[in-house]
Design goal:
Helix content is about 15%, strand content about 25%. It has about 290 residues and is an alpha+beta fold. The chain folds into three domains: about 55-105, RNA-binding S4 domain (Structural Genomics Hypothetical 15.5 Kd Protein In mrcA-pckA Intergenic Region, Chain A, Roll), CATH 3.10.290.10; about 115-180 and about 270-290, Pseudouridine synthase, CATH 3.30.2350; about 185-265, Pseudouridine synthase. Strands 9, 10, 11, 12, 15, 16, 17, 18 and 19 form a nine-stranded mixed beta sheet that branches. A four-stranded antiparallel beta sheet has the order 5-4-7-8, with no helix packed on it. Strands 1-2 form a two-stranded antiparallel ribbon. β17 and β18 form a beta hairpin. The chain starts with 10 loop residues before the first strand and ends with a helix.
Length: about 290
Amino acid sequence: MPPRERSSTIWVCVLSRNCRRSTRLPRPLRLKPRPPQRPNSRTPPQAAPEPQRERLQKLLAAAGFGSRREIEGWIAAGRIAVAGRVAQLGDRAATGEAITIDGQPARLAAAPALPRVIAYHKPEGELVTRRDPEGRATVFARLPALAQGRWIAVGRLDLNSSGLLLFTDSGELANRLMHPRHRIERIYLARVLGELTDAAQRQLLGGVALDDGQRARFESIEATGKAAGANRWYRVALREGRNREVRRLFEAVGCRVSRLRRIRFGPVELPRDLAPGRWFELAPREVRALQ
C-alpha cells in the first residue's frame, strides 16, 4: 500500500531568490453565477380600444337628429357625408368621426340617460312638417328649442285632425313607438256623418280592405254621447298608425269622418285642460312607461 501523502502548503518568494520572506498564494476567486434575469412583470401598455362603430342611421337617431327611417331617406338622397365621403346605406360610423348633414357638422354628444318627451295638443289647420312651401302653420314652430338635436314627431296627424301628438329628442324612442310590431294603442274620437249599422261595426272590428288593398281594423268601437243631428261620435282604438287610417276605415264601410281628435297614445292621455297649441313635458316616470 503506497504511503499516504501529506498535505502541504507551497510558499513562494515574491521579492528575490535570497529573500527569506515569502507569501502564500491567494486562492482564486470563485465568481458566483448571475441569477437568471426575471422577465419584465410589467404589462406592456395596450392600445386604446377603437370606438364602437354603428350603422349611421342608428348613430344619428340616438343623437336626436331624426328617426331611423327619416335618416335612411337622407342617406339615400346623398345628404350625409362621413369624413368627406358621401355616405351609403349600410355605412357605419363612430362618435368621433366627422359627419355632416347637408354640409353642416353633426355634433354627436353623449345621449342623456333619459330622453325628453313632450305632449302637444295639435289644433286643426297645422301641418306636421318642419317647413311648408306654401307658408302654412306647422307644429314645430310652437315647440321649445333644444340645445342639441331636434324634436322628432312620433307619428302624424293630418291637417284637419287635432289632438295628442308626442315629440321626443330620441330617434331610437321615436322609432320604437312608431314601429308596428310594438302595437301601441291609439284612441280617437271620430264624428261620423250618419250612424254605423251593426253589420258595419262587425266589419270594422273584423278587418276590411283599404283603398290600397291592405287590411286594417279597429280594436274597439264605442258610440259616445248623443247623436247631434246627422252626426254621431265614436270612440275607436287602433294599434298601428298608417296614413289617415281612421278616416279610410270608416270610408271602407261607406261613412265619412267630419272631425277627428286623438285623445290617447299608449299610456299618455290628452289632458282636458290643455288648450290647442299648448304642450307639456312628460315626467321621468311617464317617459319610462313609454320605453
